[in-house]
Amino acid sequence: MAPGFDQIEEIQWKGSEIRLYRTNGGATTDFGVVIRKEKNLFPGLLLVRRVDDFYPCYSMDGRATDSGFAINDKPSDCRGFPDHGREFRLKPFVYF
Questions:
Q1: How far are the Cα atoms of 2, 27, 69, 82 from residue 88, in angstroms, in the given order?
Q2: Residue-level pLDDT at 81
Q3: What is the biggest distance separating any 2 CA atoms in the chain, rounded to whole angstroms?
Q4: Distances (CA, A) of 87 to 4, 29, 38, 73, 91
Q5: Taking the CA of residue 58 as centre, how many other CA atoms within 13 Å lie in the half-sphere pointing to its CB?
Q6: Is 48 exposed, middle or buried (0-12, 13-18, 19+ CB in 10 A)?
Q7: Among 49, 55, 57, 93, which has the minimal tally of Cβ within 10 Å of its Cβ?
Q8: Each residue's pLDDT tens digit, 15-72
Q9: 0.70 surpassed by pTM
Q10: What is the H or E stretch that residue 21 is in?
Q11: What is the mean pLDDT of residues 70-83?
């Protein structure tokens, strides 16, 4: 990965991975968290879908649920969502 795009969490969900990455665009940009759904179709080909992003934010916790995944902010002043958590519903066989 490029500098400033570090994986901080990985959640396994029905044959794909939900990965959370911490971003830092530089000296004048706040830290943020980008959430992507990724699936290896075969070696060398990764299908990626950007699910959401939160700025400013430094870190989050995630967990799989039956219908997708849920995230909670750690005590790091995430102001991306008001309730300190959010659930995402995903469909297992529909990618985009």
A1: 27, 31, 5, 15
A2: 62
A3: 40
A4: 26, 27, 18, 12, 13
A5: 4
A6: exposed
A7: 93
A8: 889 999 988 866 666 788 899 999 888 899 999 999 988 888 877 888 999 999 998 7
A9: yes
A10: strand 16-24
A11: 68
